[in-house]
Write a structure and sequence with these properties.
The protein is mainly alpha-helical and 316 residues long. The protein has one domain: Orthogonal Bundle (MetI-like fold), CATH 1.10.3720.10. Helix content is 72%, strand content 3%. The protein is built from 13 helices and 2 strands, in the order αββαααααααααααα. A two-stranded antiparallel ribbon has the order 1-2. A hairpin with a 2-residue loop joins β1 and β2. It is flat. It starts with 10 loop residues before the first helix and ends with a helix. Its main location: membrane.
Amino acid sequence: MTAPSRTGPGPRRVRRERLGRLRSRSAPYALIAPFFLLFGAFGLFPLVATAWTSLFRVELTAPEAREWVGLHNYARLLHDEFFWNALFNTAAIGVLATVPQLLLALGVAHLLDVRLRARLAFRVVALAPYATSVAAATLVFALLFGRDQGMVNWALGLAGIAPVDWQNGPWASKVAVASIVIWRWTGYNALIYLAAMQTVPRELYEAAALDGASRWRQFLHVTLPGLRPALLFTVLVSTIGATQLFGEPMLFGSGAGASGGADHQYQTLGLYLYEQGWVNLHLGRAAAIAWAMLLILAVVFGAARLLRPVLRGRGV
């Protein structure tokens, strides 16, 4: 008699197939696991730890000696004139820096989009300020805006304008700090706009030209709609950067440090956080300021998202 033939796969083959399916299913998770591990260690954990610390009265010199205060650190901010001053300075410098910066970036991108000689060299020059150290750029601008021997006041004197105290004036100091931000980030945003401009189909420009549209109308009705995603991205990033502004005002004033001038005239939220946590050593208050900055950004972007349908209905 002959032995019966096996109709199904052997146990080893079944195990290999199961292992193969398991590997194919787990491979994507294994590939993205490093990101989530790093994000959890350096992003999520500090965020949660900061929120927990903000509920205590704790000093940086003795972080183990904690006293539970609940939301007292947040309630204190509502009556803290220095916090509101820093919030106003942050908003003012943010507007003074972001609006001209994005408008200039649009103009630079439009110029780079046309056929110019040495376009690559111009793009490198536009990106050079972004690659410059914050400390080096700020120290140079501090010299330019010097009250007695600064080149800006020298140029104003040639025009018959009296010298301006750029470091101590309430609004002059904000303009000076904003100019550093404009210089550093205009080229970066211009290259983003340039990349977005080059994705707009050229057929749209040709059709608009055949309809008799001028270059200005082509820019308004063809270029800007194509740049909407890039515009939203740069506004988002610029707003976050303005809220976190720290290096430029920190180094601008000679000896002012975290106070942001003698009268706190350009102290931002980032400087106030640093002053509370690492100068006054109030770690719980600094943590509350950090979370207040996050909540402010969430409110701003939430309001902007709610207004989007209204603006779209009006054709904006």
